Amino acid sequence: MTARKCIAVILAAGEGTRMKSATPKVLHTIAGRSMLGHVLDTVAQAGISEIVVVIGPGREDVAAAICAQAPNAHIVVQTDRLGTAHAVLAARGAIGTVYDDLLVLFADTPLIEPATLKAMRERLVGGSAVVALGFEAPNPHGYGRLLIDGASLSAIREHKDASDTERQVTLCNSGLMALDGKKALVLLDAIGNGNAQKEFYLTDAVTVARAQGLATGYEIAPESEVMGVNDRTQLAAAERVMQDRLRRRAMLNGATLIDPKTVYFSYDTRLGSDVVIEPQVVFGPKVIIGDHVEIHAFCHIEDASIAAQASIGPFARIRPGSQVGEGAKIGNFVELKKADIGPGAKISHLSYIGDAEVGADANIGAGTITCNYDGFFKYKTVIGRGAFIGANSSLVAPITVGAGAYVGSGSVITKEVLADQLAVARGKQMAKDGWGSAFRATSEAKKKALKA
Ligand code: UD1
Ligand code: MG
Predict the structure, then answer these.
(1) How many CB atoms within 10 Å of residue 360?
(2) Which CATH fold would you assign to the domain 253-423?
(3) Cβ distance 134 to 146 under 8 Å?
(4) 141 C-alpha vs ligand 2 centroid, how far in Å?
(5) Which fold has domain 6-226?
(6) Any idea what the Cα angle at residue 342 is, between residues 338 and 345, rounded to 5°?
(7) Which residues, judged by CB distance below 6 Å to any ligand atom, belong to the binding site of ligand 1?
(8) pLDDT tens track for 377-397
(9) Assessment of whether the complete model's pTM goes beyond 0.90
């Protein structure tokens, strides 16, 4: 089948008014990637490199998102929304007659999997000119219904056009369709708009094909794979399905998730082997985790890489641009931002380390803060290999602490500390013998005099 030429047309011209959003519906995200982005990726994973996306007029934002992810995809604009067949025909120039298979996908049906696209194409190979993708719906209201006769498809009836008997049918149309690429334009051009909504229905490709004596078929997918997203409750439902997939994939690839339902992945989270993830961990986009890393409970990690054997959290926040070296320890209530932490370094408690480099095996004491921002600009802190920063120190950037240096606890360091130096920058401790008892005696006498 790989020899067959395939083109995918993704419909993304809908207005998505039910999202009640300034952002176009298809750019709303699931697991950190837009719905349209998921569909583009699925098509690519299915080995289809010819892609056309049909967008609405004035949607430069959608066009920009397509260019960023799939620069080879063609973009066409459907100016008037006259129905799903009309939308596919907006891609007429790209479809032509050179492809064996034409797949039509919806950008608001983001959970579709490559294997299902493959199965639909197999039915084209089997001789069908039109293949619909159906699903069993416990509540079919509103969907088009697949009217079948054994393995062949007699018609798809839109809910608004269906008779009472046809409305009893629970096998619904997902909307996705595969068509014989050589015949697609002829079929689509023969579709009229004599129906309840005065729209050109893609679904009518079935009756048109049958009238021409062509075979039509269908494939069935689980509802969770073909659910459409029209409002934010459905967006949340799609997020649940996607998160369950990502959790399952992580576990099957060798990660331990102690309470999977409480771990949230990004579509691109990469985990090494034997990673342990405790409950309540959230991954933003662009995270790479090495082998044998332990992520303790309640961590938030985004755009960061964590090398093998490192230990993170509980309660750590790893912000964008951070790298944690092999075997390093990032403990509780530690925030990293754009920080490069060397192998074996320890930042065990209550620290903010931002715009910083921390050398291998350095020890950063509890409560250490890199003061990286003056309200206008950000400055860098460099801490050398094996340095020891005493607890509750402030390192005022730009600043360098040399390798093997010691900073006394409670210091406010504003000048460079050279390698192997001890730097202490805090008020000197003074001591007055008997001060406590003398203070109490005068204070008690004062209080007595006021009461008298
Ligand atoms: C469609 C199917 C229906 C199926 C349902 C599944 C048709 C005629 N009906 O109905 O059988 O059960 O999906 O959700 O196909 N679009 C455009 N331009 C248009 C019209 C639509 O780009 O002119 C896009 C929409 O953005 C959307 C998709 O096509 O992504 C489907 O359109 P929609 O209006 O939602 O079709 P339904 O009435 O839901
Ligand atoms: Mg719809």
Answers:
(1) 17
(2) UDP N-Acetylglucosamine Acyltransferase; domain 1 (2.160.10)
(3) yes
(4) 12
(5) Spore Coat Polysaccharide Biosynthesis Protein SpsA; Chain A (3.90.550)
(6) 110
(7) 11, 13-14, 54, 78, 81-84, 86-87, 106-108, 143-144, 156, 158, 172-175, 201-203, 228
(8) 999 999 999 999 999 999 999
(9) yes
